[in-house]
Design brief:
Blueprint lengths: L1 E8 L3 H10 L4 E6 L25 E8 L5 H10 L10 E5 L5 H7 L4 E3 L3 E4 L22 E4 L12 H13 L5 E5 L5 H8 L4 E5 L3 H13 L5 E3 L9 E7 L2 H6 L1 H6 L1 E13 L3 H8 L6 E6 L2 E7 L3
Parallel strand pairs: 6-7, 8-9, 8-11, 9-10, 11-12
Antiparallel strand pairs: 1-3, 1-4, 2-3, 5-6, 12-14, 13-14
Helix pairs in contact: 4-5
């Protein structure tokens, strides 16, 4: 297998990538051609949102070629499309060593320990000797394994905000609570809450695929979670409400989420950068006081308790 490597300016990077995929390439990646030099430039954007600039000043576009595809023909098609007059020496081919790609991909997702007892364990590490013995029984002082495979990018448990929420749940769930996980994604928080001893779990997401992902992951882990779209959420309040989204939607959702917390219940929010914490807390101030519980890698977990 080989890779076709080309250089292009910022304004052509996206169109060139699309054209290469249409030509039959298996995958295309765009890299900073000036990386590891004084001209290297970072692209910034708030997590969850695209940066304003989509490419670097000079880009290295790397396309993985299937066997049988003629690179010279691809280059000619790019010329005809006005995407670059690539002459001899302005593009190159390089061999890609044979790999066990499945094994290589799986090696990038090892078991993750979050909060004292909680482990996120991909299915291929289920019997790994590196993971403590499993006990999915609340109250037993052994590891809780949440089996979660990387899939539709709804959350694999590796992000600091997920770690913060899981640590909060482990610290505060005492048993038999009702829990609402709003913005459930993969369902990891809902599943953890149930394993930690909560009585009933409701998981909500605006994305139907996320709802299906939560249902699937709950089934794999042998726990019962009611997952649904927002319109299907019945009236009622919960002893614990957790939402790991982003600051802007959290502010918009403040009236709804705050009023879903039962008197004496707790609200926990993450997906909030440290510099955004005060602004988010102010949005919830009419209903309850939020404070930073913990910080990790620039992200915070906010929590508060509603008055009786």
């Amino acid at each position: 297998m080989r890779e076709l490597v080309l250089l292009c300016p910022e304004e052509r990077a996206e169109a060139l990538s699309d054209a290469l995929l249409e030509s039959g390439m298996l995958s295309v990646s765009v890299e900073d051609a000036d990386s590891n030099t004084e001209a290297e430039r970072a692209l910034f954007g708030e997590p969850g949102f695209e940066p304003d600039v989509q490419a670097w000043d000079r880009n290295r576009v790397v396309a993985l070629m299937p066997d049988g595809l003629d690179p010279a023909q691809v280059i000619e098609e790019l010329r005809e499309a006005g995407l670059g007059d690539y002459g001899d020496g302005e593009w190159l081919l390089r061999d890609v060593p044979d790999e066990d790609w499945v094994r290589l991909t799986q090696s990038q997702f090892p078991p993750i320990q979050v909060a004292g007892r909680i482990w996120i364990v991909p299915s291929w590490h289920r019997d790994s000797p590196d993971v403590p013995p499993v006990s999915n029984v609340a109250g037993v002082d052994e590891a809780l394994h949440i089996e979660l495979d990387p899939g539709l990018a709804f959350g694999t448990g590796s992000h600091p905000t997920t770690h913060l929420c899981l640590a909060w749940l482990e610290r505060h769930i005492k048993g038999h609570e009702t829990v609402l996980d709003y913005g459930c994604g993969s369902g990891i928080l809902a599943i953890a809450a149930k394993m930690l001893g909560a009585e009933s779990i409701t998981a909500v997401d605006i994305d139907e695929q996320a709802v299906q992902s939560t249902r699937h992951n709950a089934s794999v882990n042998g726990v019962q979670v009611q997952a649904m779209l927002p319109d299907a959420l019945a009236e009622g309040q919960f002893q614990i409400v957790v939402a790991n989204i982003l600051s802007n939607p959290l502010k918009v959702l403040a009236p709804m989420l705050a009023n879903r917390v039962a008197p004496g219940g707790r609200l926990t929010l993450s997906g909030v950068l440290e510099r955004q914490a005060e602004e988010v807390a102010q949005a919830y101030a009419p209903w309850l006081q939020l404070k930073v519980w913990q910080e990790r890698e620039g992200w915070v977990c906010l929590h508060g308790q509603r008055a009786l």
